[in-house]
Amino acid sequence: MTEQQQTGELFDIGYQPYDGPRAGRANALLALYVNGVRQVFGIGRGGRAKVLPALMGVVTVGMALILVVIPVAFSGGGEVNLPPVQQYFGGIILLLFLLASISAPELLIPDRRENVLSLYLVRPLGIFDYVTMRWLAFVSAVFILICIGLAVMIGVSYIGSTDPAERFRDEWTDIPLSIVAVAMIALFITTIPLALSTFFARRVYVAATLITCILLLNVVPGIFASPTCETVTTTRERDPATEEMVVTGTITSTEFGSPGLTESELAELNAPEGVTVTQECTALAGDAAGWLLLLAPDSAVTILIDWMFDSDRSAEIQQGDFWTPLIRDLPVIGVAGVYAALVLIPVGILWWRYRGFTQ
């Protein structure tokens, strides 16, 4: 038997340490932020990854076009009377909230599922840096999408105006307020879905949980804040002997869940001589009804935006004239506190959960 001889070669390539530029922590943060924005918009990914950002863009631009095209179409070539910008914000909040619940998990869940989170956290990045950059990336992307729709709405309004310069002088103060409102909405609708994404491994669970919470928080507070209205109808006739009006009958009716009669309806019922109709409505939850209405996810941010623009529209969109004073009488500082809690508590949960992932 012959022994098989094994041969081989050795190559001395030497050890070459890295001697290129070291960008440091700032560049690492920027790279993580840019990567997050690209993920939200589906840049560099397949066509399916671009569906959600496209839908979000359709929501913002579509709502803006609806609000401006209809007034322009019926203006007859004259000055265009557009609905207030708050109506644009109110129309997109819930829709973007639902889409954000589907998009947010894509920023966080894949890194945990593929066990690459530790690669991000090598020096000089920490867990706080990772969470902050992911959060800012999502907020920035949604901010841009809302601003695009806002720009379309404002731009078309100026194009349809007979005197754009005068319109700008009259309404220019609304532009910075609108930017602040966009930032408030972006913070609100992105932070909660990101926090929920830390509890689930699949985005469908995040979306289902958020949709369920939205439905419950829109329905349950309305039940407890529903009015019980007691209407008293008193009829009087003139006594021929004394020439005085005397009560001839009283009818009392109680109705649950009805917003009650408006002032014009009461005035119409009291128009005939000898008929007096009075109405008293109380909420099922009493004095706490106004605060219960803030449990609806978009209530606090909508009320604050309307307060910024000196409008009571948010109080009127709920349930007629009964809910108007309940919301209007709430202190602004209290509503602002609810909004801050809706943003800061999810931020705290987000940081706390990711701190636990790395321990």
CA-based shape: elongated
Number of helices: 15
Major sheet summary line: 3 strands, antiparallel
Low-pLDDT runs? 312-320
| Rg over alpha carbons | 30 Å
One letter per element, helices H and strands E, the order comes to HHHHHHHHHEEHEHHHHH
Summarize the amount of helix as a percent range: 55-70%
Structure description:
- The chain is mainly alpha-helical and 359 residues long.
- 60% of the residues lie in helices and 9% in strands.
- It has helices spanning 25-41, 51-73, 85-103, 105-113, 117-120, 127-159, 164-171, 174-197, 203-224, 263-269, 289-293, 299-308, 313-316, 323-328, 332-357, and strands at residues 227-238, 245-256, 275-283.
- Mean pLDDT is 78; it is low at 312-320.
